[in-house]
Amino acid sequence: MMIPAKPALDIGVLVSDIKKSFEFYHDLLGLKFIGERPVWYGVIHRLRFGESDFKLVVPNEQLEKGRQGLERQLGYRYVTFEVQNLSEICNLLKEKGISFYIEEREPLPGVRFAMVEDPDGNIVEFLQRS
Fold this sequence. Notes:
It is a single chain. With 130 residues, this protein is of the alpha/beta class. It has 2 domains: 1-62, 2,3-Dihydroxybiphenyl 1,2-Dioxygenase, domain 1 (Roll); 77-130, 2,3-Dihydroxybiphenyl 1,2-Dioxygenase, domain 1, CATH 3.10.180.10. It is 16% helix and 43% strand. The chain is built from 2 helices and 8 strands; from the N terminus they run E-H-E-E-E-E-H-E-E-E. The longest helix is centred in the first third of the chain and has 11 residues, at 18-28. The N and C termini lie far apart (32 Å).
């Protein structure tokens, strides 16, 4: 049984264009830049959300994209950022021309969410509980 060392989960995402991905996650969404470091398979650009690290990885060689969409391929399909200002985020993303995978909705009382695509077509969910 695992014993957590911190109350968060980190994720690494291989990206095709670090500039576009950094603009999306750092400049637009506000994740805090922590630093970068080379590893044997590329360069990790570490961003922070709460206590979680969101690692943008530039691979040493250009890779092919997998099938796009939520239900078209096995494996990790989306990441969730639990937030306190969902409508504000959605309005900002719309103003910036970001493509929505699922518009803001309330599937259960007190639970609202929306999903967008990042620059590589990965699904990013924003969730707010009241």
